[in-house]
Amino acid sequence: MESIAIDPGDPRIIYAGTWHLPWKTTDGGQHWNSIKEGVIEDSDVFSIIVDPKEPKVVYASACSGIYKSENSGGRFKKVQGIPSTARRTRVLMQDPNHLETV
């Protein structure tokens, strides 16, 4: 596992970024499901974060780019306009005063 993020409203919901795609559990880690919809196959996920005010919004940075999900990891969309030098961003963080800024 490369990174984890915990849903601020429900600590049983945990997201994991791994060397083989993102994963999610809704039962505190007893069962894990791949949440790779929209992520380029075989992407290494370096960082994964959950929006503290809108926990359905999940961001992931991978070797293939930066992704955003607006439905709790149900489907990710690649964020467009990222410079090629930032494509392999290792750590994502949200500005605590401007959550729309990652």
Walk me through the topology.
Blueprint: E1 3-6, E2 14-18, E3 21-25, E4 33-34, E5 45-50, E6 58-62, E7 65-69, E8 76-78
Antiparallel strand pairs: 1-2, 2-3, 3-4, 5-6, 6-7, 7-8
Gap from first CA to last CA: 22 Å
Helix fraction by DSSP (H/I, runs of at least 4)? under 10%
Radius of gyration (Å) = 12 Å
Tell me the major beta sheet: 4 strands, antiparallel
Uncertain stretches of 5 or more adjacent residues: none
Count all strands and give the number.
8
- Quaternary status of these chains? single chain
- Judged by helices, strands and strand pairing, the structural class is mainly beta
Name the overall outline.
Answer: globular
Total helices: the number is 0
Strand fraction: 25-35%
Which strands sit side by side, in order, in the main sheet? Answer: 1-2-3-4
Helix-strand string:
EEEEEEEE
Overall mean pLDDT stands at: 93
Describe this structure in words.
The structure is a single chain. With 102 residues, this protein is an all-beta fold. It is 0% helix and 34% strand. It is built from no helices and eight strands. The protein has strands at residues 3-6, 14-18, 21-25, 33-34, 45-50, 58-62, 65-69, 76-78. It has a four-stranded antiparallel sheet with strand order 1-2-3-4, with no helix packed on it. The protein has a four-stranded antiparallel sheet with strand order 5-6-7-8, with no helix packed on it. The radius of gyration is 12 Å and the shape is globular. The two termini are 22 Å apart. The mean pLDDT is 93.
